[in-house]
């Protein structure tokens, strides 16, 4: 709704300019310039406390993400080490079984 009001206010100013004797090109320029200016959002005041809280929240999220990644890598390494131990145990069991069947 706001955009339509801004559009029509800009159009109204351009039409008034054209009827007052300005040229078509100038009226079109006024329309586009005024519509662009009205469409811009003003800079809003940022509360320093809220900004600091947001920055801290981002830092905590980044730290948590890093910790989760470290835990995932440690778990992956542990599983890899366990897998090697399991594989080695299976190999030894196979060799022992092979020796028993030969005798």
Order of helical and strand elements:
HHH
Task: Tell me the strand percentage band.
Answer: under 5%
DSSP summary: helix tally:
3
Structural class computed from helices and strand pairing: mainly alpha
Low-confidence stretches: none
Record the SSE blueprint.
Blueprint: H1 2-19, H2 24-39, H3 48-102
Helix pairs in contact: 1-2
Summarize this structure as a short list of keywords or feature phrases:
86% helix; 103 residues
What would you note in describing this structure?
This protein is mostly helical and 103 residues long. It is 86% helix and 0% strand. The protein has 3 helices and no strands. The protein has helices spanning 2-19, 24-39, 48-102. Helix 1 (2-19) packs antiparallel against helix 2 (24-39). The longest helix has 55 residues, at 48-102. The chain is rod-shaped. The model has no long low-confidence stretch (mean pLDDT 84).
Short description:
It contains 3 helices and no strands. The chain is mainly alpha-helical and 103 residues long.
